[in-house]
Amino acid sequence: MSRPAPSPIYTLRGAGAPLNTLHFSCHGGDPPLLFSGSGKGAIHMWNLNTRRAEKVVEGHSGNSVVWVNTLRGTDTLISQGRDMRVCLWDLSEGRSALLDSVWTGSVGFCQCSLLETSTGTHLLAFAGQEIEEIKIIELPSKTPVCILVPDAKLGMVMCIKLWQPDSGPGPLLLAGYEDGSLLLWDVTQRAQLSQAKANPEPVMCLTFDTESLRGVSGSSEKNLSSWRLDGQNNLQLQDSVTLVNPGVSQLSVRGDGKLLASAGWDHRVRIFGWKKLRPLAVLQYHTDLVLSVAFSDHQDPQQRLLAAGSKDQRISLWSIYNEGADTG
């Protein structure tokens, strides 16, 4: 590797279970926060100034929490558990009150995807009760928008990403399936736009940069598959990246589009330059599978952090700010 690997600047302990999902909220005048979802149904709200859990929400009857997010500009937390529910929580004024919940019917590990369509209104996409279906609803009304089911048998929905393109009509959705396929959906038209066989094994995770229209997907294999969308919304496969060891749990692109982080089954976090997927660093700290990675959304780039959550019940935080460095 081109640089010596750093050490974590600090770690967060006390979750008491594997850390399946992480989400930062570091903007505005409030203290910077990191939300984590655990394998025992707990959502921890970590204050990054004090490095302690400010609040713990027990929300899914002890079932694993697989995804957490916040509704921007509000004190609303949203969480998804393997109790087949998505829950919305009011965190204002020290509360942790359940506002509403959505029954998904899905027993899989596919994480929801959230898209703000206007102030106070969001689309929520999630795997449905039937093995291949994706349901999209509007929040907070819970109004059904559509159900997306592929024409061919592709197996279980594994991962999804909802976004609004800069040009053209309504939202698009990328989905990875059990047979290794990627599908691009037009949500407004309920139509498949393109399809590509990205991975030989089930697509365990994907990340997509809406600025460059490039994405990467990972599986139980030793390869990361790179792909892009052309001007006609066709999925085009690009070069793959070979990893040292097989298995990727999660992928995340930093907000400035310079770095990609992968959560490895080999207990390591790997950092790549996003432009050319060049390996930059291997972060070694955890003693079990790394299950989740997330970049912080600090407004000051020099404060930005990378968090990694592991099956070893710890969260490591890393400072890898390197603007101006060659991150290609």
TrEMBL record:
UniProt superkingdom: Eukaryota
Pfam families, sorted: WD40
Name this polypeptide is given: Guanine nucleotide-binding protein subunit beta-like protein 1
WD repeat segments: 283-320
PROSITE patterns linked: WD_REPEATS_2, WD_REPEATS_REGION
SUPFAM superfamilies: WD40 repeat-like
Keywords: Repeat, WD repeat
PANTHER family, alphabetized: GUANINE NUCLEOTIDE-BINDING PROTEIN SUBUNIT BETA-LIKE PROTEIN 1, TRANSDUCIN BETA-LIKE 3
Database matches in Gene3D superfamilies: YVTN repeat-like/Quinoprotein amine dehydrogenase
InterPro entries: WD40/YVTN_repeat-like_dom_sf, WD40_repeat_dom_sf, WD40_rpt
